[in-house]
Amino acid sequence: MRVIGLKVFAIVLGAASVTTCASAGGVPESHDLRGANAPASGQLTGLDLIRTNNCLACHQVNQKRVGPAFTLIAQRFAGQAGAAEYLAGAIRQGGKGRWGPVPMPAQPQVSPEQARAIAAWILTLAAPGFNPS
Ligand code: HEC
Fold first, then answer.
1. Which of 81, 88, 101, 133 has its CA 20 to 30 A from that of 123?
2. CA atoms within 13 Å, Cβ hemisphere of 116
3. Using CB atoms within 10 A of its CB, is residue 40 exposed (0-12), middle (13-18) or buried (19+)?
4. For residue 106, is pLDDT > 70?
5. Given this model, what pLDDT does residue 11 score?
6. Cβ–ligand 1 contact at 108 (below 6 Å)
């Protein structure tokens, strides 16, 4: 950029010296904004993912349905080391015998990243006084 600018300046002024040009320029180095804080378009929150992945067919936030309420899951796992990772795995693999006789089918349509986002959201429900409604 600067080289081109200097050339243009020199052409316009004919015999202008490079020193004059540089001191007269005063143009800041170009700010390359490409890739800087590009908006994460399409990134969904945990709750959005729960809605779009049909989890609510079996789960509610505050009440037992086919599966346990998300708030109850949050309370069981809150504060445990590795809880988010464990829940992310449990979401994708499903399982049985942890909450009752009804099994949860595997959810392979949920990507590992989405499962982590959902697990993180579920765990926020354990915060005291948090009202998700
Ligand atoms: C067909 C019904 C059904 C669907 C659909 C379903 N679940 Fe479940 N889920 C269950 C049941 C039943 C359990 C309890 C399983 C058990 O007792 O081990 C459960 C358990 C869980 C648990 C607790 C796992 C544990 O180890 O304690 C989480 C977290 C969970 N579900 C999240 C989800 C999410 C997120 C989705 C959507 C991607 C989803 N579920 C979809 C029925 C379902």
1. 101
2. 6
3. exposed
4. yes
5. 44
6. no
Quote the pTM value. Answer: 0.74
Is any atom of ligand 1 closer than 6 Å to the C-beta of 50?
yes
Phi and psi angles of residue 95, each rounded to the nearest 5 degrees, phi first: 155, 180
Domains of the chain and CATH, by start: 2-124 (1.10.760.10)
Separation of CA 81 and ligand 1 centre (Å):
20
The size of the chain, in residues, is: 133
How far, in Å, from the CA of 43 to the mean position of ligand 1?
23
3-state SS assignment for residue 25: helix
Ligand 1 contacts CB of residue 22 (under 6 A): no
CB 116 within 8 A of CB 84: yes
CB 77 within 8 A of CB 12: no
Question: Ligand 1 centroid to 40 CA: how many Å?
Answer: 28
Average pLDDT over the chain reads 78
